[in-house]
Amino acid sequence: MPRRFLFVLGSSRSNGNTELLARAAAEQLPGDVEQQWISLAGHRLPDFGISGTTPTTAAPRTTNSRCCSTPPSPRPTW
């Protein structure tokens, strides 16, 4: 079975660090390996929303009493 690689570029910047690293890795693949590249910047994604949640039905925020009620430790003075 031939190998295939899908490269998904999720950055809004073209030629960003992640893309440059992915392209450098792809150059090391044998020539007969199929590559497919998708840039999410070129696709219109739907707005994010949580269905069934409105300001009146949203779950109340809770705090973790173990980590949030304790004040931060004082910074050391050197």
Q: Which residues form runs of ≥5 with pLDDT under 50?
A: none
Tertiary shape: extended
- What topology, given as strand order, has the largest sheet? 1-2
Mean pLDDT figure: 79
Fraction in helix: 10-25%
Summarize the biggest pleated sheet.
2 strands, parallel
Give the end-to-end Cα distance, rounded to a whole number of Å. Answer: 63 Å
- Helical/strand content category: alpha+beta
* Rg, Å, rounded: 23 Å
Number of helices: 2
Following the backbone from N to C, one meets helices and strands in this order, namely: EHEH
Strand content: 15-25%
Number of strands: 2
Describe the structure.
It is a single chain. The chain is an alpha+beta fold and 78 residues long. The chain has a domain at 4-42. 19% of the residues lie in helices and 15% in strands. The protein has helices at residues 17-27, 65-68; strands at 4-9, 34-39. It has a two-stranded parallel ribbon with strand order 1-2. Strand 1, helix 1 and strand 2 form a beta-alpha-beta unit. InterPro entries: Flavoprotein-like_sf (IPR029039), FMN_Rdtase-like_dom (IPR005025). Residues 48-78 are annotated as: Disordered. Residues 5-52 form the NADPH-dependent FMN reductase-like domain.
Describe what is shown at a glance.
With 78 residues, this protein is of the alpha+beta class. The protein contains 2 helices and 2 strands, in the order βαβα.
Salient structural properties:
78 residues, two-stranded parallel sheet, 2 helices, 2 strands, 15% strand
